Amino acid sequence: MILNFSEFEGDTVIYNIEQQRLALQSTLDAKKTQIERNRLGQFATPTLLAQEIIGHATTLVPKGENVRFLDPAIGTGAFYSALLNAYPNITEALGFEIDPHYGEPTVQLWRNHGLTIKGMDFTQAMPEARFNLIVCNPPYVRHHHLQNSEKLRLQLCTQEASGMKLSGLAGLYCHFLGLSHAWMVKGGIAVWLIPSEFMDVNYGLAVKRYLLDCVTLLHIHRFAPNDLQFADALVSSAVVCFRNEAPPKNHQITFSFGGSLLAPHDTNHISASVLRDASKWTRLPENSPRERDAIPTLSDFFKIKRGVATGSNDYFILSEQQIIARGLPMEAFMPILPSPRYLRANEIKARADGTPDIERRLFLLNINLPEYSIRDRFPVLFDYLQEGKALGLHERYICKHRALWYAQENRPPAPIVCTYLGRGDTKSGHPFRFIRNDSCATVANVFLAMYPTPLLARALVHDKSLLFGVWRALNELDPKKLLDEGRVYGGGLHKLEPSELSNVPVPNLAALIQPEQYPAKQMKLFSTH
Question: Does 1.10.238.10 match the CATH number of domain 7-292?
Answer without folding.
Answer: no
